[in-house]
Design goal:
Length: 123
């Protein structure tokens, strides 16, 4: 069983930065793939970024590539999303996700989800 809790969301001006954190509980966390999704009002939940268990492979959606960086610290049971050069269209609830195999860009295919943290970017 895995539990995920996100933090670090808030209000920021366009061009600013935020760092999201995801703290996990579970004996197998370090071997899980981790990722981030986001969901804006009236929109489907959207893939943002993913990282494998060893942090050797990282994946990003085209909309955030070059601006966001995903990382993890298995010793602290944590994953992070550093968000730079934020745009108003980045406004959404951001969710941490974990899966024992791989992170799928199809949101329902992933096993474990956090409660989400709100990110609002003002123009």
């Amino acid at each position: 069983q895995v539990q995920l809790v996100e933090s670090g969301g808030g209000l920021v001006q366009a061009g600013g930065s935020l760092r999201l954190s995801c703290v996990a509980s579970g004996r197998t966390f370090s071997s899980y793939a981790m990722g981030w999704f986001r969901q804006a009002p009236g929109k489907e939940r959207e893939f943002v970024a993913a990282i494998n268990w060893s942090a050797g492979s990282k994946y990003y959606s085209d909309s955030v590539k070059g601006r966001f960086t995903i990382s993890r610290d298995n010793g602290r049971n944590a994953a992070y999303l550093q968000m730079n050069s934020l745009k108003p269209e980045d406004t959404a609830v951001y969710y941490c996700v974990a899966d024992p195999a791989v992170i799928s860009a199809s949101a329902p295919s992933n096993d474990y989800w956090g409660q989400g943290t709100q990110v609002t970017v003002s123009s």
